[in-house]
Design goal:
By secondary structure, the chain is α/β, with parallel strands linked by helices. The protein has a single domain, classed as Protocatechuate 4,5-dioxygenase, Chain B (3-Layer(aba) Sandwich), CATH 3.40.830. The chain contains seven helices and nine strands, in the order E-H-E-E-E-E-H-E-H-E-H-H-H-H-E-E.
Amino acid sequence: MIDRVALVPQPPLLVPELVPGVLRETSAVREAAEEAVRWLRGGAGTWLAVGPGDGESCGHYEPWRHGSFVGYGADVRVSLADRDGAVPGDAAADLPLPVLMTGWLRARAGVAEARVEVVDAGSAPEECARVGRRLGRCAERIGLLVLGDGSTRHGQRAPGGPDERAAGFDEMVAAALAEVDVEALGSLDTAEAAELGASGRAPWQVAAGMARSRAVGDAEDDRKWRGEMLYSGAPFGVGYHVAIWERV
């Protein structure tokens, strides 16, 4: 059973060792993400994470997986579960970013283990909803961690180049995440999100499918979802949102 969801961005800039020159500029989103995952830990000792990927990176990653951020500039090693002793020197460096970020956030929150489902960032909304419904039927008490960024096209600093639609898109996403508006999240346009570089679209729609599956058609539990936005901004031209959802 999933009663708590933390929705966070997945930029490597959350990891201090990777951005030593801009720690002050990244502190607000980092602190919000850490607050969200500590809150998530309070509801469950194990996590299932959902993040975006493509091609061969998609799939299920079990808790024994471990890796390094060396490809992002520093050999910061992470794992999906507590390990006895040091991480072996042959730790894989090519795990997809959502798996690495889950490992880093897991350690920051002090959670025993996490599994990761990497979904295709281009998945159709119907497929995302199907995955979400499957998660909603989970009998195990787990915390759901959802990773993904907003548009990469905010202003002149944007890595994807500026696009005037980016602000409106992320404002709508932020409102939907804060209010657990599963209809608004489910209606995000796949093509527009791709054009704006919003990798979070598919994971957010998975979360919406999960929340919808618990909100209706369950005669034993008619509790609703309450949301709270902890951070929303685009400090480096990319939309980052941190929110928490709880069934109440």
